[in-house]
């Protein structure tokens, strides 16, 4: 596959030896041209271009980036504003942002510079997953290079605009992917989500207007500024309502797991068969998650759907990160779902009752079903938990995302859950003669 600047704006600069593209090489490959164009026009004009390009957030939610930027007040009285990069990539099965940060650190820095100028933010932070040690080292080195070259710091390129950028490594909590929990952690507080309103655009980091964008989202900005809106919208012309390209991939027991930059509208079947090489010999596809552990399972019948936000949403799941996971026919769905729910239960911040209590409850029921010790009504209890932990029922989106794989696994593979029901009720100890056991009493 030949990558060009016109067809692969995110990855065409990658080296064949997988080494980082440092400043001199990045400049030779048209690096910071987009930033130079952005700094030559008004900040609001930059936001208008991003809005017109139709760029949607690449962290999973898909919120329009230009609209998000436009929510940040431009009144001069807000003299301190922040732009934050959400690089806390802890979604199981997702590794796209790591690729960009380790091999193209300057592309992220350029995207943050343009975003900072559009928002008139004086300081930025890359909130990085603590385990990404190599990414941290390379980003810090790239920041030093950009500062020496005059693209960060005081009076950037003689425009009078000042912007400094820092890398902040997190302590390893999945909840930091939620933007207000990220802000709390950045401030040195416990990583709990905040009540909204006020939204970060008005009162974010240290009470100042703040915008949080994903790594891949910010990596799209330089090419939009350099090549224009019409070009960016045309990459996926005729294939999808979404614009630009997306890092997509497949993991699981496929022949060639990986991540590739593809235009929106590419079908899941194309990615699985043409890029990931199909399932390994002797295995067949049973189910797949479109974009990370917190998305609903789909089945083989959904493989011909275009990989874009609307198409996957209409099928009952979410595009999420677009890093799909293939589930083969040898995997038991109860065991797989249990593994996912253990993760989500452990990573709950415990701030709200439904999430704190509901997710461990689902784990206990799934453990019983896996052992064949489930009781009548357990599956119905799991379904009720999915409803009670759904959107709008909890403080943030952690629990709603956590129950998506559970509710879809029951929907498509209910028989595997029913197989874990023990037809005879289990009693913890012998019941004294003359006392009727309460068959509704649970084991915990």
Q: Quick gist of this model?
A:
By secondary structure, the chain is an alpha/beta fold.
Please tell me about this protein's structure.
- This protein has 444 residues and is α/β, with parallel strands linked by helices.
- The protein folds into 3 domains: 212 residues, NADH-ubiquinone oxidoreductase 51kDa subunit (Rossmann fold, 3-Layer(aba) Sandwich); 84 residues, Ubiquitin-like (UB roll) (Roll), CATH 3.10.20; 86 residues, Up-down Bundle (de novo design (two linked rop proteins)), CATH 1.20.1440.
- 39% of the residues lie in helices and 11% in strands.
- The chain has 17 helices and 8 strands.
- The strands form 2 sheets. The protein has a 4-stranded parallel beta sheet with strand order 3-2-1-4, with helices on both faces. A 4-stranded mixed beta sheet has the order 6-5-8-7, with helices on one face.
- Helix 2 runs parallel beside helix 6, helix 6 packs across helix 9 and helix 15 runs antiparallel to helix 16.
- It is globular and about 80 Å long.
- The C terminus is likely disordered.
């Amino acid at each position: 596959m030949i990558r060009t600047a016109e067809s692969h704006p995110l990855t065409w600069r990658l080296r064949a030896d997988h080494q980082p593209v440092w400043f001199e090489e990045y400049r030779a490959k048209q690096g910071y041209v987009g930033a130079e164009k952005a700094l030559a026009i008004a900040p609001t004009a930059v936001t208008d271009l991003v809005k017109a390009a139709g760029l949607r957030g690449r962290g999973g939610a898909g919120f329009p980036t230009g609209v998000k930027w436009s929510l940040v007040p431009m009144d001069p009285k807000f003299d301190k504003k922040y732009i934050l990069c959400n690089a806390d990539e802890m979604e199981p099965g997702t590794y796209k942002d790591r690729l960009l940060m380790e091999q193209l650190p300057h592309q992220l820095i350029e995207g943050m510079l343009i975003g900072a100028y559009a928002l008139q933010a004086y300081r930025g932070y890359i909130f990085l997953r603590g385990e990404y040690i190599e990414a941290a080292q390379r980003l810090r080195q790239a920041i030093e290079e950009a500062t020496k070259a005059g693209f960060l710091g005081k009076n950037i390129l003689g425009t009078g605009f000042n912007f400094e950028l820092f890398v902040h490594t997190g302590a390893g909590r999945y909840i930091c992917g939620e933007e207000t929990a990220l802000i709390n952690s950045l401030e040195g507080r416990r990583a709990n989500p905040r009540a909204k309103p006020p939204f970060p655009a008005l009162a974010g980091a240290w009470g100042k207007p703040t915008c949080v964008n994903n790594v891949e989202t910010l990596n799209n900005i330089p090419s939009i500024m350099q090549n224009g809106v019409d070009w960016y919208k045309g990459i996926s012309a005729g294939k999808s309502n979404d614009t630009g390209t997306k890092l997509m991939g497949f993991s699981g027991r496929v022949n060639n797991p990986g991540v590739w930059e593809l235009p929106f509208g590419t079908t899941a079947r194309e990615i699985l068969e043409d890029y990931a090489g199909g399932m390994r010999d002797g295995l067949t596809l049973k189910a797949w998650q479109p974009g990370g552990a917190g998305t609903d399972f789909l089945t083989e019948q959904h493989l011909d759907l275009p990989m874009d936000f609307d198409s996957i949403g209409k099928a009952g799941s979410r595009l999420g990160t677009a890093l799909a996971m293939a589930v083969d026919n040898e995997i038991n769905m109860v065991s797989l779902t249990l593994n996912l729910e253990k993760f989500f239960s452990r990573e709950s911040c415990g701030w709200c009752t439904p999430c704190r209590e509901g997710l461990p409850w689902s784990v206990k029921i799934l453990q019983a079903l896996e052992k064949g010790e489930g009781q009548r009504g357990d599956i119905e209890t799991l379904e009720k938990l999915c409803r009670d932990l759904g959107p709008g029922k909890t403080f943030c989106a952690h629990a709603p995302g956590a129950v998506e794989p559970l509710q879809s696994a029951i929907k498509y593979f209910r028989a595997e859950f029913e197989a874990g029901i023990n037809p005879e009720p289990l009693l913890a100890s012998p019941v004294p003669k003359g006392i009727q056991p309460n068959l509704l009493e649970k084991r915990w």
